TrEMBL record:
Protein name per the record: L-threonine 3-dehydrogenase, mitochondrial
Enzyme class name: oxidoreductase
Pfam families, alphabetized: Epimerase (PF01370)
Catalytic activity: L-threonine + NAD(+) = (2S)-2-amino-3-oxobutanoate + NADH + H(+)
Signal peptide: none
EC number: 1.1.1.103
Record-stated family: Belongs to the NAD(P)-dependent epimerase/dehydratase family.
Pathway(s) this gene product operates in, as recorded in its UniProt entry: Amino-acid degradation; L-threonine degradation via oxydo-reductase pathway; glycine from L-threonine: step 1/2
Amino acid sequence: MLRFASRLALPTRRQPSAILYLAAQHRALTTSLSHVASSPFAKGSVSRTPAATVSTSTPVVSARNASTGAQALQSLSQRPPRVLVTGSLGQLGLALVNEMRTRYGVGNVVASDIRKPTAGLPIAHPEGPFVYADVMNYPLLERIIVDFQIDWVVHYSAMLSAVAEKEPARALNVNITGFQNVLELSRIHKLRLFCPSTIGAFGPQTPKINTPDLTIMNPNTIYGITKVHMELLGEYYHEKFGVDFRSARYPGILSVDTMPGGGTTDYAIDIFHHALQTNSYNCFLKPETRLPMMYISDCIEGTLQLMEAPVEKLTQRVYNMAADSFTPAELDVAIREHYAPDFQMNYVPDSRQAIADSWPASLDDSLARRDWGWKPQYDTAAMVHKMWTGIAAQYTPRPTKLEDAGELTKVTQA
Ligand SMILES: NC(=O)c1ccc[n+]([C@@H]2O[C@H](COP(=O)([O-])OP(=O)(O)OC[C@H]3O[C@@H](n4cnc5c(N)ncnc54)[C@H](O)[C@@H]3O)[C@@H](O)[C@H]2O)c1
């Protein structure tokens, strides 16, 4: 077991007054979203009755592994949960579905996305159910939830920070309307709902070091605004309607098998592919940009811990979740010292630098540790080791000497 070592442990500052500001921000945001089709929220407020919008022309869902009537009669306590994962072909969804199918049974985990699973994706149980589900299509989502008798939803579909800045209108639709749809369906069908938040929910005025759960948010990106909206609305639905909404604020997630989907922490994955292919990398962040990061195994394990936690253990609905923090310069040194002495890192900051500058350098996740036993297994050194060895194995020939790294050709593309 690898030891987690936190570098930064400075005092935290709580600012409950920020919540009032956030609530106002949330109200303004929800009332402005009146143009989205295929949603019970399409023409206005959250109070519109979804039943009125469910069309009889709802697309037919392929329910090849849908549960039988006999299974339906089993009580929830006697069987594993049936889970719908949205955005399941993304960086995190693939890993989560694989782990959930191992734990809960292949047929109990319904993967969904708006893309086709392509050859080469690391899908451990390809025989499991996969359905098309656009999260903006409320009737379709409801049909899937009913057909598969879903108990839990993990809502992973989203547009991440860098791509959301380029397509703000689409990001508002996918991140806000998509979440509102699954949240309302969770209320109606009494589902447990997990939707990840992010360090991107914080902003330039947030205390940067050891950022607590409850503090000033004020994000200045579309991505962050949609995530604050998600957090507040989830908490509201929990308070008001008893929806079992749960969320963890993820840091940047590092993975070997799956490629990132357009975030600001993506450099910490790209760097390994470039180091192994060309022995050099043009980093889009400045050398001293410190951001919280986590290895994907920790992310998936922590997410399942939070999902499985008994409700009485939870003292809040949104938790910071941290592992370690590092800078591009520290990653550069770690690669040169341990794997590729001639690796050449260049710094070419772009628009993502401003996003990174608005985010915390480290998170205080003590409440997640106390309430549901969160404890990461990978510190920076362990993450770098997993990333280097795992990504090196994707290229041929496998590097036998460090100097071979520059001549490798990529053979797998997640
Ligand atoms: N990857 C990270 O480092 C990170 C960090 C913090 C938070 N998160 C959060 O975790 C979640 C998953 O992130 P990820 O990295 O896997 O993202 P990703 O971009 O890799 O995957 C997102 C998936 O959503 C799908 N999608 C897009 N629009 C959709 C729609 N309208 N309907 C259904 N699916 C749609 C995409 O096809 C894609 O497969 C997101 O909510 C993200 O904000 C990720």
